[in-house]
Amino acid sequence: MSREVITRFAPSPTGYLHIGGARTALFNWLYAKHTGGKMLLRIEDTDRARSTEGAILAILDGLRWLELDWDGEPIYQLTRAERHREIAEKLLAEGKAYRCYATAAELQAMRERARAEGRAPGYDGTWRHRDPSEAPPGIEPAIRFKAPREGETVIEDRVQGRVVFANKDLDDLVILRSDGTPTYNLSVVVDDHDMGITHVIRGDDHLTNAARQTQIFRALGWDTPVYAHVPLIHGPDGAKLSKRHGALGVEAYRAMGYLPAALRNYLVRLGWSHGDDEIMSTEQMIEWFDLDAIGRSAARFDFVKLENLNGYYIRTTSDAELVTRIKALIPELPDGAALLERIGSDGWGKLERAMPGLKERAKTLVELIDNAGYLFARRPIALEPQAEKLLDPEGRQTLGQLLPRLETLDDWSASSLEDCVKAFAEDSGCKLGKVAQPLRAALTGRSTSPGIFDVLAVLGRQESLARIRDQVHAGAPA
RNA sequence: GCCCCCUUCGUCUAAUGGUCAGGACGUCAGGUUUUCAACCUGAAAACAGGGGUUCGAUCCCCCUAGGGGGCGCCA
After folding, report:
1. Residues 6+ apart with CB under 8 A from A350
2. CA of A252 and C1' of B5: distance in angstroms?
3. CA-to-C1' span, A412 to B43 (A)
4. How far is CA A463 from CA A94, A352, A370, A466, A468, in A?
5. What number is the ipTM of this complex?
6. pLDDT in tens, A227-282
7. Residues 6 or more apart whose Cβ sits within 8 Å of residue A134
8. Within 10 A of A106 (CB to CB), how many other CB atoms are there?
9. Which H helix or E strand runs over A251?
10. Structure pTM?
11. Which of A23, A109, A247, A424 sits 20 to 30 Å CA-CA off A278?
């Protein structure tokens, strides 16, 4: 009988929740859900200088927006420092660690020497056997872990396979700083053990740490968790993800108008696959996700594919939900306040009614909002350059002829409007496009926009006719 | 420099000791359409290089090259 799976997402709050972290969280979450286990959240805030309250908030917020929930309360690593210190002392008492009195300057010199000699620039173990009585006065010692010097440390990684490190390449790392605070590798081991973590799923930048942590687990007589080191996400140029490309916080993706479901779908396919399946529901993801199907090579972040996926999710999301999401998004946009004012209290209904035509042609929510501008535009509509071309004198004339027909029309449903305009086109012997294009330009100010009959219907009789008149007159010679 | 990892269309990826090496995004060409989008059809597009093992290697082994990660009293 196997234990319940417990995974953890353990970000350090030194910045936002970036895209790689988001995927790591997603994988942990999916694996926990898949196995019916739990995902815990641990905030690794032991670097007091760099950790910030704002970063913690941003991370929690990002996870919530992505709809990745965690079990229990977040655990703040800093609050566990006493326990970590206790374990460091225990290792010291058992002779599995020792006090090191080397100064920063000495360590620096040591590293330079090692590098010059072509060795790994690690600690040389000077204080491993030296007696504390030889310690120079006035130096507070750090505690170093006495790492095995011979043999190998082997990681049986669920993604990377069997990875072997020669112990001679792993130096004696500091586990307790001279100021008495614990360091990362010790804290992680103690916390993973105390939290009952069974599976550690994280970026493969931690692969070497896995070896060091394994050594500490062994020294403590504890079982190691199952490891799964996931390849990192690279930028479009194959280099490390930088701010220039995707290393934005997830809140930036939210602000760009991506849907969390789309981002999750995109992210899960980056480095993991289930046959030829591309688009999958969260339920399917949970059902199908497994560690063994994670690839071993780094993946490049591709905004274009994300956009495609986002377009799909926008098209298949209900009108009402899209309106809700847009409501939440607008305040985050640069000109959000002004837009909100123009929409007013009655604009949301209009937006929802226009949604069927709008959502067909937007890749992001921001694009959708942009396309919906005609709904809230003040008259007269300012024509964009493209639309200006469509509304040439000929177009204005056509509209002038169409106007009387529209005025007598009683039924302003999209279908009867379509019939009316089609009949007009036929009677005047021109192609439907010849009529539809200037009509669109007059009503929306744009050359591309939703279905024109829907636009007419959504704006309503009064508004539509007034707008057409505006544009026809604006073009008529005074 | 040392250690570790990786390498299939431009990108994300699938599959297999014998396949026309599959799908998706993107691109291109058609179709449909009131424009755009969506949708439909079709096309171009990949096993990094070199050695082995084998009747046969994209697949197994080794080397090279390229890319990435790590090497703190950071996490």
Report:
1. A375, A376, A458, A459
2. 31
3. 45
4. 84, 17, 20, 5, 9
5. 0.94
6. 999 999 998 887 777 555 555 889 999 999 999 999 999 999 999 999 999 999 99
7. none
8. 13
9. helix A250-255
10. 0.92
11. A247
